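Give me the 3D structure for SGNH hydrolase-type esterase domain-containing protein.
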Amino acid sequence: MERQSLFFSFSFCFFLFSLLAGFQGVQGSSHHHRHHLYGTFRPTKLFVFGDSYADTGNNRKTEANSWKTPYGITFPGKPAGRFSDGRVLTDYLARFVGVKSPVTYRWRKYGGKRLRNGMNFAYGGTGVFNTLVMDPNMTTQIDFFEKLINESVFTKWDLQSSVALVTLAGNDYAAYQAKGGTDLGLPSFMTLVVNQLALNLKRIHGLGVRKVAVTALEPLGCLPRSTVKSSFQQCNGTENTAVSLHNLLLQQAVAKLNSNATKDSAFIILDLYSSFISVLQNKEQPGSLKFETPLKPCCMGISNGYYCGSEDEKGVKMYTVCENPQSSFFWDTVHPTQAGWRAVYLALQVKTCLNLTARLSLDLSVDVGDSI
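Predicted structure for SGNH hydrolase-type esterase domain-containing protein (372 residues):
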C-alpha cells in the first residue's frame, strides 16, 4: 500500500496524542487494515453509550425502524438494528481500536467471547434526559454498565484498558421542542443538557474507563428533516447557530474535565459538526466519495406522514430508496448512510491530524486504506 506522511485511514491522531496518553508508536498492518497501538496503553475494549448514531441493535424490534426493511441492506444485508443502510460510527471506531463491534446490552447473555470486545449500551432515540421514546436515557445506560461491573462481568483491568464512546445527536432538543420549549429558553436548556452530559462523562471515567470520547453535536440544520423545506438545497442556519452554542459549552466542559483528570486519562471531543460540514460541502477528502445531492436522503417516505421503512395497513411500502446508497450521504431524514459515516470517519482524522502535525511538527507514516 501507498505510504504517506499524514495518517490517512482514520487512525485518529487525536487518539494517539490526546486520548492515548503514554503512546509510544504506531504500526500499520496492510493485511488486517488496522493500527496496533504500543506503549503504556493499548485498548482492548470499547464501551458505548448514547443514541442512534452509536446504537447497533439495542432498540426493541417491535418499536424501532432500524429493524425494518430497508435498513441494513448494505450491511449485513438485512435489518439488524442499525439506523443506517449499513455500518455506523461505533463500527468504525471499534475497528480503529482493534476490536470487533461490541455486543449490544440487549444480547449480553448471549455475548460469549464477544464480551471481550466491550459492550454497546446505546439506544436510538435517547438523550441525557428522558426523550420521546421509552428506552433508557444515558444515566440508565451507565447504571446498566455499573451493574455489570458490580457483578464482575468486567474487571478493573478490563476498564483500565478500555475506551468509551459517548454520542449525543440532539434527541434532548427534539423532545424539548415537542414539549413546547421556546427559543428563548433554549440556551438555558442547553446548559442543563451539557452539564448532565459532563456528569455522565465523569461518571464513566470514575467507574474505571481511562479514555472517554464524546461527539460534538452535528449540524442539525443540515439534516434532511430540516433541509426538506428548501427541497434539500440548503441548511438551516438558525438551527446550526444554536448547535454552535451547544458545542461551545461542550468544549468548555471537556476542558474542565481534563484539567481535573490524571495525566494518564483523557476526555476528547469527536468533532462531528466540522466533519459533517466538510463532507456536505463536497470538500476533497482522501479516499472519500463526493455526494451529488448530499442533503437529500436515500430512503424517504412518499408523502408527509410516512418515513423510511413505513408500510400502509395492507403492507404496501410507503417509501422510496435510491438506486445506490453509496451515492448518498444521508440514509433517512436524520442518519448517514454507511458511505456517509465512512466519509465522516475520514474527515475526522484529516482535520485532527493536520491540526496536530502542525502544532507538534510531527511526521507520521502509516498504511493508507479503508479500515472497515
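The first strand starts at residue 3 and ends at 4. Let me know if you want a second pass.
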